[in-house]
Hints:
Helix content: over 70%
Order of helices and strands: HHHHHHHH
Largest sheet: none
Structural class: mainly alpha
Distance between the termini: 8 Å
Amino acid sequence: MNADLAAVMQLLIALAFVSIPIVRHRFGPAATTAAEAELSRQGVRPGVLAENGLRFDASGHETWAPVSVAVIMTAIAALNFAGSDWGQTLTWIFQSLVIVMNGLILYSNLTAVSSVRTAFERKGDPELARIDVPAFLNAAENAFPGWVRIQQNIRHPIVFGGSAVALVALILL
C-alpha cells in the first residue's frame, strides 16, 4: 500500500515535469515575440535573442530534461506498483535528485533577472548591457496565459511534497 502511494506521487511528479515543455511549446513562440517587441521598444537590434541563445520555447534542455525526469519517475512508479525492491531503492536515489533539481529550478526562476543581467554583462556587448532586463522578462512572461503562473506555483509543491510523501511512504513500509 505505501509503495502504491509512492508510485501515485511519482506519477503526479512526472505530470508536473512533462507540463513544462508542453506549456513552453504551446506558448513559447508568443513569449519570444513579446520579448523581441520589448527589446525593439528599447532600441535593441533584432535578432539579439537568437544570437545569444535566449529562447522561451521548448527547445533543447527545456524538453529533454523534464521529459527525462517524467520517464524516470514513471518507470520507478511502475516498479513500485509491481512491488519490486528496485522501486524502493530507485525511489530513494531519484526522489532525492528530483528534490535537488526542483530546488535549482525554483532558484533559477527566483533569480532570473539577476542571472540574465549577469549573463548579458559577461558577453561584454554594450547593447546587451543596457537592456532593461525586468521589462524584457516581464514582456515574455506576460505572453503566457495567466493560468501558467498558477500552474508553476502548483508544480513546485507537487514536486517537493510528492517527493517527501513518496520517501515517507517507503519509510513506513
